[in-house]
Amino acid sequence: MTITWTDWQATAVPLLLALGAIAVLLIDAFWSTGTKQHKHTVISLITGGTILFCLAFVVVQRNGFKPAFCRTVVEGPAECSLVLEPLTIGLWAVLLIGGLGVVGLSMYRLLSADIPVGEYHFLLLSALVGATVLAGARDLATVVIALEVVSLPTFAMVALNRDRRGSEAAMKAFLVSVLSTAVMLFGISYLYGVTGSLYLQTIATRLPGIDPDLRRVAFAAGLFVIVGFGFKIAAVPFHGWLPDTYAGAPIEVTTFLAVVSKSAGVAGLLVLVTFGVAPSGSELRLVVAILAAVTMTVGNLAALRQQEAVRLLAWSSIGQVGFLLAPLAVGDAQAVVGYLAAYVVVTLGAFGAVAVVQRHRPGGLLSDYRGMIRSEPGLGAALVFFLVVLAGLPPGLAGLFTKFAAFQAVIDAHLGWLAVVMAVNVMVGLAVYLRWVAEIFRLPADDPFSVDIETPAVAVISACVGSAVVMSLLPSALFALVT
Question: What is the pLDDT of residues 44-53, one digit of tens each?
């Protein structure tokens, strides 16, 4: 294969993030003056500045189309490994906003924790490099490499506490990731054997015309690829690793897993389904629809039983993945990215509130939030608003509109049975989130609720509230991410 041209603007964001990661690591290695707190502030500002610069680039290139690592072919359009287009831009914006929010929360928590700050920020930026490449990948080799660049740093981030619980959580995530990668590579090898190409566009073109005897092989190959991604995004029944990993990781890392890592997995699966292994009319889309129904049902039912805030958010995030998979199954990229944007903002805010509370009440039980609305009305109201948006209730109209868009996409595709499952799960989700809201409004016990909130946490939570309000008042902004 001969690469004929590359537009380097398509690689600008991953390259800038990679340079930022190297800069953070070098500054941490050669830092010799000032306090640990000063070093942490400088490194956090560099990390945040790098992500902000990338966001500015995304805004400038919003309507652009820039291919990279392309080669010409005898018939048809050129085959490219990376493409910057409106879908890529929308996914990049979501991923970068999530990463920036995690950096803000890290400034609040890591100052007094025994966590190597430089390594943490290096790993965070490295994972973002993989996430942004994954969102723009258009061939299977790039998809696999980018997915591993997302996964490998997160294992190390989960284990940063260096205690038994963190090590177990990291080991579970690592073993599941290895298994999922093996399954995915097995499927890719057969997909390449059937179609003769790794480029998604070429695969989508050749699949409908392959020999009838090979269609079952192609179906099984695509199924293995989707199952591999199912492990990565914790879709049921490939979800067993997620609750323990969320509970064992530092809260900032848990936030990163829930916001950035999961969004990257959904972005990769969206790219695969939309552009390659499951073109319109493929039986694999029905598989994704079934996966969505099972995932949202199991996630919401399990969340009903949880008594810890982090575990409840972990299981509810599994349920939210089911809602994300529903429009993905019918190839509605606009609905997926809009839902993902709202999910990232409110989940980031919810985890920010949990980080504040767990610093003062490490138990992390839902009962620890009792009386929060009376003693800490600002934080309590913000958390209630985030939960209401996740539930899809007014005044959290952002959640309502994104769920409506997911319903509309499914109904338009004539999947009435999936719409019924979604409606039932909306009711179950109400019970999940309102149970937590009830604790926040309940009269406090003998030990009144009280926390100290530092400036970075206030900034992140306030920004999430403001963004969610804007999304609720201007829902068109959500779906304008992909035009």
Answer: 899 999 999 9
Report the C-alpha gap between 386 and 338 in whole angstroms: 16
Burial, 411: exposed, middle or buried (Cβ in 10 Å; 0-12, 13-18, 19+)? middle
- Asked, as a colleague might, if the bond just before 327 is cis with ω within 30 of 0, I would say no
Task: Tell me the three state secondary structure of residue 69.
Answer: strand
Tokens 């991604």 sit on residue = 229
Q: What are phi and psi of 177, to 5 degrees?
A: -65, -40
Q: Which residue reads 């059937």 in tokens? A: 194
| Residue 299 · residue 281 · CB < 8 Å | no
pTM for this predicted structure:
0.92
Length of the chain: 483
Cα–Cα dist 66/149, whole Å: 22
- Please determine, for residue 391, whether its predicted confidence score (pLDDT) is greater than 60: yes
Alpha helices in 9-81 (DSSP H): 12-30, 36-60
Q: Contact 37/142 with Cβ under 8 angstroms?
A: no
CB 389 within 8 A of CB 468: yes
Supply angle C-alpha 156, 347, 184, rounded to 5: 50
Determine which helix (DSSP H) or strand (DSSP E) holds 68, and give its type and residue range: strand 66-71
Phi then psi for residue 317, to 5 deg, are -65, -30
